[in-house]
Each structure stands twice: as structure tokens, then as C-alpha cells.
Design brief:
Layout lengths: L5 E4 L2 E4 L6 H9 L4 H7 L5 H13 L1 H25 L1 H14 L5
Antiparallel strand pairs: 1-2
Length: about 100
């Protein structure tokens, strides 16, 4: 009996029966994480579900890559809007980040 590991709902792709997005599993996989290490990051999922999600991605790779690119563009647009709406906040955040990465003498 075949099992569905991914469901399309609310305009996104999700691991069936969970609140974990397929995006998060795919990005971890593309960064080189093993299914076992992905399972450690998402303890609500079992190894079978991780492999099922990866198999779904590989079987629908063109469609999923297009979907991920579209979401990335949407995220970048939101980030740009947030920076434009709150320039002082982002200036302070950038300065704090720079201080964290500046070696101390």
C-alpha cells in the first residue's frame, strides 16, 4: 500500500500530517545533510518520512525547484520591504553584527 509523504495545502508543500514544510527538508538535503541528521533536526518526523520527502522532491524536481525559487523571490521582496520600512532598526542590527564579527585586540 503506497503512502503519501507530502501534501499540498495553504499554498505550500508540507510533510503529510505535520507542520514541517517540505522546503525545510529539501534545503537541508541540498546543503548536504543526511536524512539521519535531518531527522535529528525535526524529531516530530521519522526517518521514513524524511526519505519520503526527499523522494518526492527528486521525483518532482523541476516543479519543486521552480516553487522554491518563487518562494525565495517572495522572501527577498519581503526582506527589502522590511529594510525600507525600518532603516534605523536594520542599521543597528548591521552594526551589531559587524561588532560580533570584528576581532578584538
Amino acid at each position: 500500500m503506497a503512502r503519501e509523504y507530502v501534501e499540498h495545502r495553504d499554498g505550500g508543500y508540507w510533510i503529510a500530517g505535520s507542520r514541517v514544510s517540505l522546503d525545510s527538508i529539501v534545503y537541508a538535503f541540498l546543503r548536504g545533510s543526511s536524512p539521519e541528521s535531518i531527522t535529528q533536526s525535526y524529531p516530530v518526523l521519522n526517518l521514513e518520512e524524511i526519505y519520503g520527502a526527499i523522494a518526492y522532491y527528486l521525483a518532482h524536481q523541476d516543479e519543486m525547484d521552480s516553487y522554491l525559487r518563487k518562494n525565495d523571490r517572495g522572501f527577498e521582496a519581503l526582506r527589502s520591504e522590511a529594510r525600507a520600512a525600518n532603516p534605523l532598526l536594520y542599521k543597528k542590527l548591521d552594526e551589531a553584527k559587524q561588532q560580533l564579527h570584528t576581532p578584538r585586540a
